[in-house]
Amino acid sequence: MDEKMQGEGLGELLLLDALSKCLAGTENIAAVGVIVDAINDDAVRFYERYDFQQFMGLRYTSGRPESLRCACRAISLNLKPKTK
Q1: 3-state SS string over the chain?
Q2: pTM value > 0.70
Protein backbone atom coordinates (compact mmCIF):
# COMPACT_ATOMS: atom_id res chain seq x y z
CA MET A 1 0.00 0.00 0.00
CA ASP A 2 1.38 3.41 -0.92
CA GLU A 3 2.30 5.38 2.21
CA LYS A 4 -0.08 8.20 1.22
CA MET A 5 -3.00 5.77 1.34
CA GLN A 6 -2.10 4.02 4.60
CA GLY A 7 -4.52 4.45 7.46
CA GLU A 8 -7.57 4.75 5.19
CA GLY A 9 -8.69 1.13 5.67
CA LEU A 10 -7.99 0.18 2.04
CA GLY A 11 -5.43 -2.48 2.94
CA GLU A 12 -7.95 -4.12 5.20
CA LEU A 13 -10.62 -4.08 2.49
CA LEU A 14 -8.20 -5.57 -0.03
CA LEU A 15 -7.10 -8.28 2.40
CA LEU A 16 -10.66 -9.20 3.39
CA ASP A 17 -11.68 -9.37 -0.27
CA ALA A 18 -8.71 -11.60 -1.12
CA LEU A 19 -9.35 -13.86 1.88
CA SER A 20 -13.04 -14.22 1.03
CA LYS A 21 -12.13 -15.21 -2.54
CA CYS A 22 -9.59 -17.74 -1.24
CA LEU A 23 -12.15 -19.20 1.11
CA ALA A 24 -14.73 -19.43 -1.69
CA GLY A 25 -12.14 -21.17 -3.85
CA THR A 26 -11.82 -23.99 -1.35
CA GLU A 27 -15.17 -25.27 -2.60
CA ASN A 28 -13.42 -26.24 -5.85
CA ILE A 29 -9.80 -26.84 -4.89
CA ALA A 30 -7.93 -28.29 -1.95
CA ALA A 31 -6.30 -25.60 0.17
CA VAL A 32 -5.10 -25.40 3.74
CA GLY A 33 -4.39 -21.70 4.06
CA VAL A 34 -2.92 -18.49 2.70
CA ILE A 35 0.72 -17.38 2.83
CA VAL A 36 1.79 -13.73 2.60
CA ASP A 37 5.18 -12.04 2.58
CA ALA A 38 5.27 -9.08 4.95
CA ILE A 39 7.86 -6.56 3.78
CA ASN A 40 8.41 -4.80 7.11
CA ASP A 41 7.44 -4.85 10.79
CA ASP A 42 4.33 -2.72 10.20
CA ALA A 43 3.11 -5.23 7.63
CA VAL A 44 3.80 -8.10 10.04
CA ARG A 45 1.68 -6.40 12.71
CA PHE A 46 -1.08 -5.73 10.16
CA TYR A 47 -1.32 -9.39 9.14
CA GLU A 48 -1.08 -10.61 12.73
CA ARG A 49 -4.33 -8.71 13.46
CA TYR A 50 -6.00 -11.24 11.14
CA ASP A 51 -4.44 -14.29 12.84
CA PHE A 52 -1.59 -14.72 10.39
CA GLN A 53 1.28 -16.47 12.13
CA GLN A 54 4.98 -16.91 11.53
CA PHE A 55 5.67 -19.51 8.83
CA MET A 56 8.68 -21.80 8.80
CA GLY A 57 10.40 -19.88 11.60
CA LEU A 58 11.40 -17.03 9.28
CA ARG A 59 11.44 -13.50 10.67
CA TYR A 60 11.71 -10.27 8.68
CA THR A 61 15.25 -8.99 8.29
CA SER A 62 16.41 -6.07 6.23
CA GLY A 63 15.71 -6.84 2.59
CA ARG A 64 13.98 -10.16 3.21
CA PRO A 65 10.22 -10.42 3.75
CA GLU A 66 8.73 -12.47 6.55
CA SER A 67 6.38 -15.24 5.48
CA LEU A 68 3.17 -15.48 7.47
CA ARG A 69 0.36 -18.02 7.14
CA CYS A 70 -3.32 -18.17 8.00
CA ALA A 71 -5.26 -21.45 8.00
CA CYS A 72 -8.48 -21.64 5.98
CA ARG A 73 -10.46 -22.46 9.12
CA ALA A 74 -9.26 -19.18 10.67
CA ILE A 75 -10.04 -17.14 7.56
CA SER A 76 -13.80 -17.44 7.99
CA LEU A 77 -13.43 -15.98 11.51
CA ASN A 78 -11.50 -12.99 10.17
CA LEU A 79 -13.75 -11.71 7.41
CA LYS A 80 -15.03 -8.81 9.49
CA PRO A 81 -13.24 -5.45 9.51
CA LYS A 82 -11.03 -4.85 12.52
CA THR A 83 -10.56 -1.11 12.09
CA LYS A 84 -12.02 1.37 14.58
Answers
A1: CCHHHCCCCHHHHHHHHHHHHHHHHCCCCCCCEEEEEECCHHHHHHHHCCCCEECCCCCCECCECEEEEEEHHHHHHHCCCCCC
A2: yes
Among residues 57, 17, 20, 15, which one has the least CA distance to residue 36?
15
pLDDT in tens, the chain (84 residues): 667 777 778 888 998 898 888 888 888 888 888 888 888 888 889 999 888 988 765 555 555 667 888 888 777 776 666 655
**How many angstroms separate the Cα of 61 from the Cα of each of 1, 19, 52, 64, 65?**
20, 26, 18, 5, 7
The radius of gyration computed from the CA coordinates of the chain, to the nearest angstrom, equals 13
Kind of pairing, strands 53-54 and 66-71? antiparallel
Domain range summary for the chain, segments of one domain joined by +: 31-84
